[in-house]
């Protein structure tokens, strides 16, 4: 069984920052895996935000967040972090952590991820 739990959502004013964390547990921790962040706003499809490889040496970002968001991997590999700066109202969404068994190449589509967290709300007010 695999469990992903997100922490750190909340509300912030435009221009502010938030940090999200994701903790993986269960059988996946015996394997190497990529971790990613996706988000879903009301009435919209779930979209890719960022992903980081198992080693942490390779990362991918959606164009909409490049230069503002930074994804990283914890030293224990079972944690992933998303630092979000210069937030704007368009970043408002439920943010989901996900894990893919593709270890070294960050994946950018929902279809590449077999395991998902329950999501955490991020609200940015203008």
Q: Summarize the biggest pleated sheet.
A: 7 strands, mixed
Beta strands, count:
11
DSSP strand content:
over 45%
Order of helices and strands: EEEEEEEEEEE
Number of separate helices: 0
Runs with pLDDT <50, length 5+? Answer: none
What best-fitting shape do the alpha-carbon axes yield? globular
Termini Cα gap: 40 Å
Cα-atom radius of gyration: 13 Å
Q: Helix share of residues?
A: under 10%
Average pLDDT confidence is 95
Characterize this entry briefly.
The protein is mostly beta strands. It is built from no helices and eleven strands. β5 and β6 (59-61) form a beta hairpin.
Task: Characterise this structure.
With 126 residues, the chain is mainly beta. The chain contains no helices and eleven strands. The chain has strands at residues 2-7, 10-13, 18-26, 34-40, 47-52, 59-61, 69-73, 79-84, 93-100, 115-116, 120-125. The strands form two sheets. Strands 2, 4, 5, 6, 9, 10 and 11 form a seven-stranded mixed beta sheet that branches. A hairpin with a 5-residue loop joins β7 and β8. It is globular and about 45 Å long. The mean pLDDT is 95.
């Amino acid at each position: 069984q695999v469990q992903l739990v997100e922490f750190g959502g909340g509300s912030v004013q435009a221009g502010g920052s938030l940090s999200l964390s994701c903790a993986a547990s269960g059988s996946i921790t015996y394997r190497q895996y990529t971790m990613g962040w996706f988000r879903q706003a009301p009435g919209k499809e779930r979209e890719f935000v960022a992903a980081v490889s198992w080693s942490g040496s390779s990362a991918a970002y959606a164009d909409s967040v490049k230069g503002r968001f930074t994804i990283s991997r914890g030293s224990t590999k079972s944690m992933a972090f998303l630092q979000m700066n210069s937030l704007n109202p368009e970043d408002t969404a439920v943010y989901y952590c996900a894990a893919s068994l593709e270890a070294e190449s960050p994946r950018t589509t929902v279809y590449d991820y077999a395991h998902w967290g329950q999501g955490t709300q991020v609200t940015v007010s203008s």
